[in-house]
Amino acid sequence: MNVAARSAAPYRPVLAVECTKIATLTGRRAAMGLMSVARPLEQVRARQKSVTRRLGWRHVRVGEQIMLCEKAVGLQRGEDAERIVAVEVVSLRQEPVSAITADDVIAERFPCLNRQEFVAFFCATHRGVLPDTEVTRIHWRYLDDQPPSHAKRIE
Predict the structure, then answer these.
(1) What share of the chain is helix, strand, coil (3-state, %, to 5)?
(2) Integer Cα distance of 57 and 51 in angstroms
(3) Which region, left, alpha or beta, applies to residue 108 given φ > 0 means left and ψ of -120 to 50 means alpha?
(4) At residue 88, does pLDDT exceed 80?
(5) Could you tell me if residue 20 is left (phi over 0), alpha (psi between -120 and 50 degrees) or otherwise beta?
(6) pLDDT at 136 exceeding the cut of 90
(7) 36, β-bridge pairs
(8) What is residue 36's predicted lDDT score, i.e. its pLDDT?
């Protein structure tokens, strides 16, 4: 294939499932995916947030490990994402933004918002999203058993 034909080919990201298959065939461990968690960052550092809603993210599978980062998109060349903590996907489903429950608003770490306020917030902070827009609800567990480094020890 010549260079012109290669550059004309459409960009297609490698899916996590493909990475897992490659890792199985080669005997190597698949690279852990990155997920940016900028909004409730302190709650992630404190291991309090356990649910998130994402546009897309249909490639994620239960049991997959993801590294939560402060910034994982829009990095400059040579810049590395600040890794916070590794998590494992416990459950996921596709649902409209408006299907959020009061318990999930708390799990998302927005306890000061009710369901309607969360939906309005989510729609306002994600361009083109309406209450009936389908999102991926991802529930995770933290892989480290230890408290965050900044947590106070009670004796």
Answers:
(1) 25, 25, 50
(2) 14
(3) alpha
(4) yes
(5) alpha
(6) yes
(7) 69
(8) 83
Q: How many degrees, rounded to 5, is the angle at CA 49 between CA 43 and CA 55?
A: 115
| Residue 46, CA distances (Å) to 41, 80, 117, 124, 140 in order | 9, 22, 24, 26, 14
Q: What is the residue whose two structure tokens read 């990201």? A: 13
Look up residue 148 and give its amino acid: P
Please, what is the end-to-end C-alpha distance for the chain in angstroms?
A: 66
Identity at 117, one-letter amino acid code: E
Question: Beta strand 33-36 with 65-69: parallel, antiparallel or unpaired?
Answer: parallel
Q: State the sign of the Cα–Cα–Cα–Cα dihedral 27, 28, 29, 30.
A: negative
3-state secondary structure of 75: coil
Token readout for 115 is: 């369901």
